[in-house]
Write a structure and sequence with these properties.
The protein is of the alpha/beta class. The chain is 37% helix and 16% strand. The protein has two domains: 43 residues, no CATH class; 182 residues, 3-Layer(aba) Sandwich (Rossmann fold), CATH 3.40.50.300. It has eight helices and seven strands, in the order H-H-H-H-E-H-E-H-E-H-E-H-E-E-E. The chain has a seven-stranded mixed sheet with strand order 3-2-4-5-1-6-7. It is globular, with a radius of gyration of 18 Å. The termini are far apart.
Length: 237
């Protein structure tokens, strides 16, 4: 059975329905699932995950590389990155999420919307939302992380927000060296330049990444860009 929209968009529809009707999110999710012809939201997610882009991308990841996931707001880049963390944890690895955008409660709700119960992570998930997040903070937080750990940085440009931080290029090089040394995968969620025009190009690409300061994007071993359900994998180099 083909879904009428990607899971992230159905989830967003459920959140809107929850607010509009003042009903719990889980009830709205079940309603959306019923509209799609499924007996429950968990069944819908299970069906979608059989061909999930996150699984396809995860299977291609190499320990020690950096990954870039880019999209405009609301097109599923955070959800896809969380799904990558879930895939890592399913494989027995750790998943770590660094953000200034979300609370831990927000992220746990997103996991549940993916029909993933955080209690089943068995201590393999770690969350950070400190104002001090930069390359040095990330390296310190991951100092004891075992090989295969997948860390998500939400988002690339946050490393560039404080003047006292090293230059963005310096921080990314530091994280790349650290990832290679320790056998980690670091996924960077990225903003897209506001000049990107979807009417001229159906999906953004490496040239549309918003960079307030210079950065050699060939440092990223894998890229993934999303727009209106269109998902495109590639390499920066």
């Amino acid at each position: 059975m083909r879904l009428s929209a990607p899971v992230y968009r159905l989830k967003r529809n459920a959140r809107l329905l929850s607010r509009a009707k003042n009903i719990p999110l889980h009830e709205a999710l079940e309603g959306i699932a019923a509209e799609e012809g499924f007996g429950s939201w968990s069944l819908l997610v299970s069906k979608a995950s059989a061909i999930a882009p996150a699984r396809k991308l995860f299977d291609r990841l190499i320990p020690g590389e950096l990954v870039l996931v880019g999209a405009r707001p609301g097109h599923g880049k955070t959800l896809l990155s969380l799904e990558l963390a879930v895939e890592a944890m399913k494989a027995g690895h750790r998943g770590v999420f660094f953000t200034l955008e979300y609370t831990e409660k927000d992220i746990l709700e997103r996991f549940r919307a993916l029909a993933v119960e955080p209690a089943g992570f068995d201590g393999r998930f770690e969350f950070h939302n400190s104002d001090g997040i930069n390359a040095g903070y990330i390296v310190k937080a991951l100092a004891g992380a075992p090989r295969g750990t997948l860390a998500v940085v939400d988002y690339l440009q946050l490393l560039d927000q404080k003047r006292e931080n090293p230059e963005l290029a310096v921080q990314v090089r530091e994280l790349h060296s650290f990832a290679r040394e320790r056998g980690l995968v670091i996924v960077f969620i990225s903003q897209i330049d506001r000049f990107y025009d979807p009417s001229r190009k159906p999906c953004p690409d490496i040239g549309d990444v918003r960079l307030p300061n210079p950065l050699d994007l060939t440092v990223f071993g894998k890229t993934c860009f999303l727009q209106n359900g269109d998902i495109r994998f590639g390499a920066a180099g």
